[in-house]
Amino acid sequence: MNDDQLILYYYDDGLSRADRRRIAAAIEADEQLAERYAALCRELDSLSASDNECVAPAHVVQRMHDTIDRAGRPVPVADVPPPHRFSLPAFAWGAAVTAALAIGIGIGIFVTRAPTVPLEDAPVMAATQDRGAFTRGVQVFFQDAHADLVSMPVADASDRSRLITNIIEQNRLFERAAAQNDAQDLARVLRAFEPILQRLAADDITPAEAEALRSQLAFELNVMLTKISRGSSNETHTT
Amino acid sequence: MKSRTRIFFVLLALMTAANGWTQDDAGASDDSEALKLAALEALIAAPPERALPLATKVLAGNHSKEVKARALFVLSQIDDPAAQQQLIRTAEQNGGELQAEAIRMVGIGGNEAALARLAGLYRSGDEATRRAVLEAYMIAGDVDGVFEIARNTESEADFEHAVNMLAAMGAHDELRQLRATAGLSSSLINAYGISGDVDSLLELVRDGSNPEQQAQAIQALAIAGTGKGEDVTSILRDAYRNSDTQVVRDAALQGLIIVGDDETMLQLYRTSDSAAEKRQLMQALAATGSDRILEIIDEALAEQ
């Protein structure tokens, strides 16, 4: 289990309930993992000290997950009522479309962009005063995403989609964090990744198209990694 | 000396790239192409005054579209106004093979003057160009740019696309303004749901003058939730009970499935005296995956 998953678990975002249950069970069963998670919690707690907080309200996140779970559930078609009546398959389709819209059109982000309570009441993903920690987090994300992309099975649409969906969730977290940390340059790049990721996650693209998108993303991730590393190196030298 | 050190590192990076990344990042058609891509990756480590002419030279040179597109991304990351100028010049080459990519990079660059020039491209461009401009505004977080497009377009499809983008950007005020100027539409109701504009949705849910729009708002509200201490379940239950319109009742029931409130559905089942309605509620309850379905199956079988 990697740190990205533990970070999402900590922030209660970007994971399905099944994933959360799996991670919770793993933490309980594995002492080393529990220690790792405890250390991560301490670090993330220290980042959450700022008052400038903004994120999806828990009930919105929960409802979105519920909706997605329900939309993805197989619906029996044997007892479909006649047209103009309540149609479960039609509803499931509609819910799936709506859930997809909710997850993000382009870079939608229903949960990220649509806090239905005042921002100050919404917990999580704080703007951090430790810019170094934020930068390191982004670097790790870029490195992991790049590694995942390089090893990704391009031809298998379902595997590809699963992996890319995971990257999209993390990308949104970091985009939100970048905006809150006043790193607008980085936030724009992360927002620009999302349409590419969405296309890469689609199951109706050819392997050649998938390969081209992967190559583009891998390149852009590497450029950003180099740029951030150079920037943090300069900061280190000037302090 | 400092500059020399940097150049040394760039060269070192180039060598590393040529040796190590060629096999990692698939997509390069041959070693030469891979070497060019690796060189472009490393270019970002060079000082802007050196990286800019090199990236510009790649754009003007006889290279593949992929290499030139990568050069555009490097340009977007060079902290120099001249780089942004180069991007917008490429974006304005109508029909150019790099136009869409250059427009995306203008969004990434976030330069206000360059973003403003995209509006002209939108007006004169084909559908692909218009979509690219909207995406660039989204990347740049330029709500005003998207709003102006939504406000001025005469194309229904373009309006819907822009509205969706505004929803994704959480632009509540702009979406409400559009309702005032363009009238309420299905795409606007969806946008209120996506952006989580609960106030607008509640107003529509309680307005029975247009059942189709009311039904759409009910479903959107079920997904968005209220988040204001108002109980979405009771709103859905009231809509179901109080409406005489089937489409509204169906939407309320679908909303209850979205919310997953089996208790309310069970109550509605038990208080209903219509067999058809009971059947519909039973199917809805089954759709939630709730164990409570067993209770009413028992009851239904016992009644027989």
General description of the model:
The complex is a heterodimer of chains A (239) and B (304). Chain A is mostly helical and 239 residues long. Chain A has helices at 3-11, 17-29, 31-47, 58-72, 88-103, 110-113, 131-151, 157-180, 184-201, 207-238. The termini of chain B are far apart. In chain B, 76% of the residues lie in helices and 0% in strands. Chain B is mainly alpha-helical. Chain B is built from 19 helices and no strands. Chains A and B meet through helix 4, helix 5, helix 9 and helix 10 of A and helix 2, helix 4, helix 6, helix 8 and helix 10 of B.
Tell me the strand percentage band of chain B.
under 5%
| Unreliable spans of chain B | 1-9, 11-28
- Give the oligomer, counting copies of the same chain as homo and different chains as hetero: heterodimer
Q: Count of DSSP E strands of chain B?
A: 0
Quick one: overall form of chain A?
globular
Please trace the helix and strand order of chain A, writing H or E for each element. HHHHHHHHHH
| Average pLDDT, all residues of chain B | 86
What is the H-and-E element order of chain B?
HHHHHHHHHHHHHHHHHHH
Distance between the termini of chain A: 35 Å
Q: How many helical elements of chain B?
A: 19
Decide which structural class fits the backbone of chain A.
mainly alpha
Largest sheet of chain A: none
Helix-residue proportion of chain B: over 70%
Largest sheet properties of chain B: none
Helix content of chain A: over 70%
Structural class of chain B: mainly alpha
Indicate the mean pLDDT of chain A.
68
Instruction: Give the N-terminus to C-terminus distance of chain B in angstroms.
Output: 94 Å
How big a fraction of the residues of chain A is strand? under 5%
